[in-house]
Amino acid sequence: MMTGFALLNQHWKEAFLVCKHQLDQELSDHARDFKRAAHNHEQEEEALRSRLASMIQERDDMFARVLERRLKAGSINVPKVMNFLNQHQTQVVGNWPRLKALLEHLKDHQVPLDHWTTQIMVTAIDDYSAQPGPFVTLDEDDRSEEKKEEDDSGSGNGSKNAPLDFTQDPTPTATPQTPPTKRGKASSASSRKLQLRPDPYTPSGKDALDPRTSLTRTAEEARASLADHAVIWDKQRTDLQLVMRSGLDYLDAFELVSGDHLVHPRIPVRELTLMLARMMYWGRLNHTPWAKYVPSWCYKKAE
To answer: Spans of biased composition, class Low complexity (predicted)?
Structure first.
């Protein structure tokens, strides 16, 4: 009786130690993942602050250019104007120094002297019959330059791409003829089982691309590199697009994402998290060889 009790006690004690070890290991892994996720969050904040500072500087530079353009447009180069008025079959006769002095006052935003009385007559030898009538004050608010500046600044840097890939719904969305019932929605949602990890899962110690590190090429540059290949950029998988933007050409990138290789170190954390979330939802993790090497903290962030 005592022997059986001792054996049973030893069995449960060992089972308790095993469970405790597993729990301690899970707590340790969770603490490690939380620490790495927090560190990555700090890196993302630093990258966003740097990007914000760059955008602010770009805005200030643009504002300075606009002011400089307005100042140049509002100033008069008196010698240039006088030379222009004496070229191309045009000639200033009479008291031209008075005209030059008036232009200098205009440039300096000053009114003419009180004792000046000046009359300027323009004679068009090729159009004697012209009778335009008395001079009418013109509108001094010329918005053409400002509109041109707005058009230049609003041209944009390219359109956003929405590539089609395996991380999305494999079947096209059909427009329902009749609205689904609440029961049908609940049944569809409850029947889907999320795949939280690939099988097998052997996470790597390498992290995703540092948020402070920019991809080598833009989407437009990577798209242009496909000119020699009979493929369409928008039809390529998201991971392939990002790997190409990291610097690889199409064939090398295709081989990397299709084989049993580490891919996530070339992908920014934000894009990696979105891809993992979609693959977890659609149960496509086992169809992506590189998914089994992604660190666990990235999966927890995607969850």
So the answer is: 167-176
Q: Is position 233 within any domain?
A: yes
The domain in which residue 81 lies consists of: 75-131
For residue 258, count CB atoms less than 10 angstroms from its CB and return exposed for 0-12, middle for 13-18, buried for 19 or more.
Answer: middle
For residue 34, being part of any structural domain is answered with: no
Residue 32, domain member (yes or no): no
Six token digits for residue 47: 């990258």
Give the CB-side neighbour count of residue 226, counting CA atoms within 13 A.
18
If asked whether residues 123 and 198 sit together in one domain, one would say: no
> By C-alpha distance, which of 222, 201, 202, 300 is closest to 266?
222
> What letters, b where the CB count within 10 A reaches 16 and e where it falls short, cover 200-230?
eeebeeebbbebeeebebebeebbebeeeee
Per-residue confidence of the chain (303 residues) as pLDDT tens digits? 667 777 777 777 777 777 877 787 777 777 777 778 777 778 788 878 888 888 888 888 898 888 887 776 667 778 888 888 888 888 887 888 888 888 888 777 778 888 888 888 877 777 777 777 777 766 766 555 455 555 555 544 444 444 434 444 444 444 444 445 555 554 554 556 788 888 889 888 888 888 888 888 999 999 999 888 888 999 999 999 999 999 999 999 999 999 899 999 999 888 998 989 998 899 889 988 999 999 888 888 888
| Displacement of CA 210 from its chain's centroid (Å) | 16
Closest CA to 108 of 139, 76, 138, 137: 76
3-state SS class at 188: helix
Write down the pTM of the prediction. 0.49
The torsion of the CA quartet 256, 262, 265, 267, rounded to 10 degrees, works out to 50
